[in-house]
Prior knowledge:
There is one protein chain. The protein is an alpha+beta fold. Among the domains are: about 5-180, Acyl-CoA dehydrogenase/oxidase, N-terminal domain (Butyryl-Coa Dehydrogenase, subunit A, domain 1, Orthogonal Bundle), CATH 1.10.540.10; about 350-425, Orthogonal Bundle (Butyryl-Coa Dehydrogenase, subunit A, domain 1), CATH 1.10.540; about 465-580, Butyryl-CoA Dehydrogenase, subunit A, domain 2; about 590-725, Up-down Bundle (Butyryl-CoA Dehydrogenase, subunit A, domain 3), CATH 1.20.140.10. It has helices at about 5-25, 25-30, 40-45, 65-80, 85-100, 180-215, 230-260, 265-290, 300-310, 320-330, 350-365, 370-375, 385-390, 415-425, 430-445, 445-460, 575-585, 595-605, 620-650, 655-680, 690-705, 710-725, and strands at about 110-115, 120-125, 135-140, 140-145, 160-165, 175, 220, 225, 465, 485-490, 490-500, 510-520, 525-535, 540-545, 550-565, 565-570. A four-stranded mixed β-sheet has the order 1-3-4-6. It has a four-stranded mixed β-sheet with strand order 9-12-13-16. A four-stranded antiparallel β-sheet has the order 10-11-15-14, with no helix packed on it. The two termini are about 35 Å apart. About 55% of the residues are buried. Flavin-adenine dinucleotide binds near residues 467, 704, 708, 711 and 713.
Amino acid sequence: MNLEPSDDQRMLREMLSRALERSSPPARIRLLEDAGHDAECWQAFVEMGLPLLRVAEAHGGAGASLMDAVVIAETIGAFLPLIPAVEVVVAARLLGALTGGADGVAEGEIVTLALADATRAGARPVVGAPVAGRILFRCGDAVRVVHGPFGANEANTGSLATAHVPLGPDVGAVVASGPQALAAFNAALEEWKLLTAAAMAAAARRSVGLAADYAKEREAFGQPIGSYQGLAHPLAEASVDVDGAALLVWRTVERIAQGHAAAGAMVSMAFWWAAKAARGATVRAMRVFGGYGMTLEYDAQLYFRRVNGWALAAGNPDAELARAAQRLWQGAAADLPDAGELSITFEFPASSQEAAAKIRAVMAEHVTPERARWQYESNDFFDKVLFKKLAERNLLFPDWPVALGGGGYDAFSCAAIRDVFADYDWDGVIVNIADMLGKMLMRFGSERAKAEILPKLAAGETFATLGYSEPSCGSDIFGARTRAVRAKGDEGDEWVIDGQKMFTSHGHMADYVILLTRTGESKHGGITLFAMPTSLPGYRCHEIKTVGGERTNTTFYDGVRLHDDYRLGEVNGGAKVLATLLALEQGAGDHFVGPLRAMLEAALEWAAQPDLVGVVPLDTLAAQLTLATVAARLEVADVLNRRASEAFGHGRPAKHFGPSTKLFASEAWLSCSADLVALAAPESVFQAFTPLGRIERHLRRAVPSTVYAGTSEVQRSIIAEAGLGLPRTRA
Ligand SMILES: Cc1cc2nc3c(=O)[nH]c(=O)nc-3n(C[C@H](O)[C@H](O)[C@H](O)COP(=O)(O)OP(=O)(O)OC[C@H]3O[C@@H](n4cnc5c(N)ncnc54)[C@H](O)[C@@H]3O)c2cc1C
């Protein structure tokens, strides 16, 4: 797993960034907008050899990889130079493939391509046409070329040099014809979509960054405007959406390189999502600047307009959703570009994959249809038999040291096994919490607690729960009132615990509770954590039923006497322990990818069956669009999740990666389940173990997912603070 571009790609990005900083500052972009083209900047692009970037070496080009081109497109997106960079990179490669060379391009000739089919004669808008020497276009079973000059630039939203050009069977000359030529052209169009998606995501990311910088400086009502959640939260959400778009482009490159069956659909989903996310994000960013954001002197509008120009150049981006559906479920084939070499990978490393494969084998044998039904109907998802099987094979905690009963696998293995659980839509939360307890003990526990608890955890005989939330505070975790007071007991140093916790899920079956208590008056500096055995006198647990059918509990602590050996970390040092716990919780992986996938599968099962009047939903556009939306959001959730796992596995977790995944995936689960329930109404309101019944339950279970493990509002605040550097809003 590696999401760092190669050294060469970093150098490429730096080289182009430096050149664009010099040759294409925003003031110059504004000056030349009417022309839609910056000849000097184009010259700089040519001198760097970039038009020939993707032309095969055999055809006189640099033979660079698709990922190299993505890096270039991202840089173009960040700086918005007025040059048809993506169009030329793609068209030059096509020209090389069809004619064996790309003469003229090295000297600066602009060769572009028509994005629309020109089998029927007519004038079509072509990006780059006003400055192009040649246009390649598709017509019937041939790829044709027409030589310029073409018409003058026509003013347009994105200030892209664009003109309507008459194209058709009688225009220009045939360059190549037949299936191979068409496949090459189609692959060029797919590459254009992917590179444009990369440019849109980067442009939107830059505009969100500029807006965040402004929000830190600009004050209203005596405070920086970034301290207002009404502004910070939408910006945080926009940043997650565009991060997801950028990552989805990378994942698509990897899928193309792998020859994955869904690679063509991924291109469509990446383009659709990038267009949607970037258009939304740039509006959000503009509004941060208030009235100034509407003025042409400010850069925010440049990003908004360019992103719209790119998103709409090939038609309504929603058409890509329908195309994704056809590619995923109707057998539509896609011609794809060659990816070349690739150094990034979203796949887990070999050792983690080995652990995951072993767990997959256990799951394959364990998860019978009866067992799956049992899991579905369970309200606490506590599959002790499975956990015992995994423990016997040292797979329950794959990254623990072998000496402690773990598998000795690398730090990615936790996320890799969550991925297997996700494939089976199997709940492993209780194992995650047991894992957290084990790791907390290894790091912060006494020798006695380690000796008592670790072997039982490793054997799959002991589980834990989290006792953070209280009746009076959940989000405000440091507002805890459950008291721990020192006392002298029979065994020496003890604590007496009094209080009540809310929502202690698994509190009725866990043997230990990771308990957050108040031991001092200072809000953040008066917290101490314990690994408290639930067998101690004074602990009581009462069931709470929830809308999704999941059981949780309220737990009472009435004079519970707990030895100091069960303390985790320093007295009043709970903030540090809690930070480690949260990092573990958020880096561990899954984050609702499993439920999203299971829901899509249930929906596809329903959509493949004819309804009462014989219509197969999957054949209808409405169902295709809804299902493809779910599929695309699932992919975004997956890449955000993998980003968090990758950073965690490399030991450099970013504080906002986990919250970004949690926010996106839980909200996607909620909105997608609501859309699916609406699509299949009224039958979808009935509760049963049928595909539709399962979707109905997804909707009820998705709502709490936006509350537990940190509400969406709290996640947005963390992302705004840690990801965008906006002021902290929570005391
Ligand atoms: C099914 C389920 C299982 C759970 N399991 C556990 C568990 O095992 N252990 C455990 O300790 N807890 C658990 N919880 C509790 C959960 O973590 C809390 O419900 C959650 O943190 C919210 O706290 P609260 O309910 O007190 O709501 P509050 O914190 O009172 O929040 C109420 C509303 O105000 C919003 N809000 C609060 N602060 C801010 C802010 N600064 N900015 C903007 N909006 C804000 C919230 O987003 C929410 O919409 C579970 C909850 C559920 C529903």
